[in-house]
Amino acid sequence: MPTFPDQPLYQKIKEDILRQIKDGQLLPGDKIPTEYQLMEKYGVSRITVSKALSELKSEGIITRFPHKGTFVTKSVLLPPLVRDAPIPSSHTAMPASMTEIACILPSITDSFSLSMVNGVQSVFPEDTYICHIFQSHNPTVENYLLQRCLELNISGIVLFPQDQPFFSNQLLAMQLQNYPLVLLDRYLPRLNTNYVIADNKAAGELCLRHLHKLGHQRIAFVTSTDRNTFSVKYRIEGIQETALSLNLPDYAVQLVEFLDKHKKFSYYQDLFLNLITQNRVTAFITAESSTCTYLYDLLTSLDVKVPGDVSLMSFDKPVCSSRNPDFFTHISQSEYLMGREAGTLLKNRIELYDINTYHRVITPTLHVHESTGSVCL
Fold first, then answer.
1. Which of 80, 118, 149, 281 could cross-link 154 (Cys pair, CB 3.0–4.6 Å)?
2. In this structure, are 315 and 223 located in the same domain?
3. Same domain flag for 230 and 315
4. Predicted local confidence at residue 6, as pLDDT
5. Count of domains observed in the chain
């Protein structure tokens, strides 16, 4: 247990967390320990821990999401895109004009999205740029936000992926106008614009080769989104093409689509019991980190042990309240780097008037942890 000088305990905890961030032990988007874990580490009460976290949150150092956890963020949350925002009381430090950009994403309720946003923001100096963050929720709202950004003279947009295939005439019109736009983790064949994506086919190959090396011959791919969504589609293709190259039979990979994470476990218990007992599935790959945590809890409700009975792995790092942060084997898409690359492309387009089209493909990496193991014979 750390020792404290004559200083308030909450202040010491706060400074220790700040030190970890400064030293790179905690990066933007990383989940910090729970209040209970911090209480155990420092030997203090929950009130003391809460006060330290509250100060970090008020200073924009961390962001807390209900039922998700507490994550490192880059800075204070930026103001929403409104024209009647109050003017700062001091004008002396304000520049004559600031360039306004926008990030439009379906939601910002997970560490993956937060890391990408922080990556984008890291490129733009806070004294010359204002970054507006919009949650689109669905394609209709996204289309509306694109139109509003044009009406309000936003200088450029980083557009994040929808969890479904989506293309609008508004996007095509923006391309024809040569509007500064970068797609992030998203590719639209009809739209020849800048984009930054992860190599999803390579990621699918990494998943299957890892499980095949452990002896798994029957694997289920589980997704909560449309299989034709850009990332999901190519992950499936990578898995299926790898299965073919390994001479696995057609039934080796099964697809379980549209898992609704809002349904009670009882709705899916028979389905997954049949996959394990009748179809002899020994490993699951989930397309989303949130799907992974849902499936883990579902399997636990069935008294199916991970990895004792089945292996479980995911795209992106899952955050599960019942497991330590490094339990799940997962594919990292280097989301912070992806955001930074997208921000760089947009910044060059705005400042250097670079009208060339660039396609950046980020190589994924496999992180092997406890949730995958050899097949039990």
1. 149
2. yes
3. yes
4. 56
5. 3
Which residues span the domain enclosing 259?
Answer: 200-333
43 shares a domain with 188 = no
Residues 241 and 223 in one domain: yes
Q: What is the pLDDT of residue 295?
A: 95
Averages of pLDDT over runs of 10 residues in the chain (377 residues) are 61 85 74 87 88 82 76 52 46 66 84 87 93 86 88 91 63 82 80 88 97 97 86 93 95 90 91 96 94 94 96 89 85 92 95 90 94 86
Distances in Å between the Cα of 124 and the Cα atoms of 148, 305, 365 are 22, 46, 27
pTM of the model: 0.69
CB 332 within 8 A of CB 340: no
Nearest partner of 248 among 288, 211, 273, 201, judged by Cα: 211
Do residues 226 and 315 both lie within one domain?
yes
Name the nearest CA neighbour of 122 among 373, 335, 271.
335
